[in-house]
Amino acid sequence: MDADDGVADVLRDARRVAIGLGHHAVGTEHLLIALTRCDVLANTLRQAGLTHREVESAVLALLDKSDVLDRMDGESLGVFGINVDSLRDRMRHSFGEDALRPKPLQQAGPRWWFRRRTAPPRPGLTRRAKRCIEAACAEHQGGPAAPARLAVAVLDHPRGLTPAVLRRLGVDRRRLRDELQKG
User: Fold this and answer.
1) What is the 3-state secondary structure of 60-108?
2) Owning domain of residue 86
3) Using an 8 Å Cβ cutoff, are 121 and 24 in contact?
4) DSSP label at 171?
5) What is the pLDDT of residues 41-83, one digit of tens each?
6) Are the C-beta atoms of residues 22 and 164 closer than 8 Å to each other?
7) Do 137 and 49 share a domain, yes or no?
8) Is the pTM of this model over 0.90?
9) d(Cα 72, Cα 35) in Å, to the nearest integer?
């Protein structure tokens, strides 16, 4: 298997994961989930405590905790006398439990595909995911990026959902990074 094929497979799988979760873009968390299914990396990741099921569960648990008001600054709203917790409670009471969760990407029905005869929409990449892919390619001086290099780039990225997933699972990022670079 060519290194390009391995990364292409990971990217295709990450897109499927993002679509399955209803996300509009592929982020580092989708890349991490897809990397756990990569045959070349599965053993190393499993030894570090990253199985597909555990990573997917951690991502879903962290996504489930987030809602629209999590992105707001509670102190800033407090200046205006707004308590974020009471606002959240009122909104849930008035509009239901899912009122504050972002709406998932809606898939078009089969009739739309028949009429339009266009390719299905594919989620793009987030800036963080693009940076990870660029870093993996740059590390190999512009040549093909192996899945292990992509995994190292995802582990090295300090922001996004992936660091929270790794903390939640108790994974030592540095040790895993070293293992991936050896193999």
Assistant:
1) HHHHHHCCHHHHCCHHHHHHCCCCHHHHHHHHHHHHCHHHHCCCCCCCC
2) 68-100
3) no
4) -
5) 888 898 888 898 999 888 888 876 555 555 545 667 778 888 8
6) no
7) yes
8) no
9) 32
